[in-house]
Amino acid sequence: MNERLTDLLDRFAGRRVAVVGDLVADFFVYGEATRVSREAPVLIVEHERDQLSLGGAANAAHNVKALGGEPLVVGLVGADIYGEMLLAELQARGIDTRLTKRVAGRPTTTKQRIAASGLHTTYQQLVRVDRGSREPVSGPLEQELRAALVEAAGAAEAVVGSDYGYGMFSPALIGDLPAIAHAAGRQALVDSRYQMLSFKKADLLTPNEPEAAAACRCAIRHDDDVRYAADTALREADAGAVAVTRGKKGMFLRSRDGAGEFLPIYGSDQIADVTGAGDTVMAVFALAAACGGELALAGRLATVAAGLAVMKHGAAVVTPDEIRAALERNPWREP
Fold this sequence. Notes:
Layout: H1 2-10, E1 16-21, E2 23-36, E3 43-56, H2 57-66, E4 70-78, H3 81-92, E5 96-103, E6 110-117, E7 124-131, H4 139-155, E8 158-163, H5 171-183, E9 188-192, E10 204-205, H6 209-215, H7 223-237, E11 241-245, E12 251-255, E13 261-263, H8 277-290, H9 295-309, H10 320-329
């Protein structure tokens, strides 16, 4: 099995993936808190440094790039400093942003976190300030994004929809994404926080357990509940397959024609941070689709990549070398 997994991993190099979705700037302000303001009972944070990280669809694209693929991003940012910084960060990592639109009057979706430390303590997040609009795109902007999606699908070998609910996907674009991908002969893979069942005829849906439960109107307590949610998603979205990610319980993978299988988490179940792990899973499935990889094999490789990602803090990425080294240390064993 290890040889098959590494063979698939080797085929990821240079594969082109269109990543379409909500681009998010994760902006961190770090400082030291040593006193309380005389103006109000609040901490005064002495600024030390800022850091911008890639979030949302930008993190999905970053994961594709880290695994050896070539992402092409379709999305939008505002004509503001956070949009400039987000585009610069993507470009610095060699990610193609030529189909990303800069939009005046619509702020870049930004999650600004202020974290402070004491003299002998670690950083703790004090507050988060969110900027952006959840209003779905419309009018000329919607048509521009649709044209960009058509161009990206024609240039890529697989199409990813990364929907975080920040307005990139209007009702029309939700229906367009699978149809445009299929018209170009590409698979459409969708990770949608709130609208999974609306992406009809997607080749793969990748919800986590809470997203699957909400979409399928059920509570997930046991394995049978996961099966029910996956079957419901396949039926109601007319999807080709669904991968329900389950944190330390691994993944449930079910195709339209298969019985489904539970894949355990790879490595330790002592998880450091699940932030962005879904983007890692999606990147593996997308690159496997781009190179014609088998779904079941991609699922196994995705659990390995996710198992490494959750051991890192923040929206982390995983490299092929890290995956190969992990498989050498701890070969995949069938459940």
